[in-house]
Design brief:
By secondary structure, the chain is of the alpha/beta class. Helix content is about 35%, strand content about 20%. Mean pLDDT is about 90; it is low at about 290-300. It binds S-adenosylmethionine (SAM). It is an enzyme of class 2 (transferase).
Length: about 300
Amino acid sequence: MHIKVPPIKCQGIKTKLVPFILSQIQWVEAAQSKWIEPFLGSGVVAFNLAPKRALLTDTNQHLIAFYQGIQTSDIDRKIVAEFLQDQGNKLLTMGANYYYEVRDRFNQSASPLDFLFLNRSCFNGVMRFNSKGGFNVPFCRKPQRFSQSYITKIANQVDWVAKQIAGKDWEFRVADWQQTLAEAQLSDFVYLDPPYIGRHTDYYNAWKQADAEKLAVVTKQLPCGFAVSMWFENQYRQNSHIQECWSDLERRVCQHFYHVGSKETLRGAIAEALLIKPGFSVRADQLLPIEVGAIAASLYPS
Ligand SMILES: C[S@@+](CC[C@H](N)C(=O)[O-])C[C@H]1O[C@@H](n2cnc3c(N)ncnc32)[C@H](O)[C@@H]1O
């Protein structure tokens, strides 16, 4: 499976795990069935799967507005390339001051193109908002950030998303996960990738233990199939929330082996779990070997 990357980056983006996630799920798309993602983030899972119908939601209105813009063709390859060319030139001339000017402008007007500019030139490519919802990530300190090849790469990513959306019955909507789950029907499939408890906390990601527990209760009452992504263990500990709230589900785990220099090492490794409603997972003995991006992965079912 050749995985493509969307134009917007966010914490917890599942790019490398898409083959693992999609290879574990057994869902037959029926005439009216929808793929539902209540925690859309970058959209990398939905865009690579490209179902016929989808309900794609997130509380972060900037993510949603950006993808709505692509859907209505207000944002396309050409518009993005011209915008980033122009803004990139200003960044090159004026440096960090220009980044902060765009950041202030974005926090006033919420322009989706400014959002893209900031997302692709901020420090470490993270997405973080202050308590009032203002984007507050500092500059990456590279005024030459928007090289011709970088602009082309981003424009191609926008074009790829436009192609994945074209002709499909997809809705992008700003919504809290509870509203979205309330719409799920019998033949739908829900993929959930909630924020990590207590990590990356910001305006759009205040995810506490109580939220995680409520999500488990509500999700398990869904009439349709579902799968939930969650970190399983790192070198220090296991995620006890899985045992506490999701132990009755089918559990598949993908272990990352990070490459350090030329060597493969478990140092800093993290295992990601996919918790699947019984009856909606591919049987473990029918799984095909998968390649997870640039990293090697091993699968071990629970
Ligand atoms: C881990 S990220 C999803 C990453 C995504 N699967 C990807 O690969 O890019 C979690 C997302 O949940 C959203 N979110 C946080 N709290 C939410 C809530 N209460 N309802 C809906 N979305 C929420 C965040 O804005 C963030 O985009």
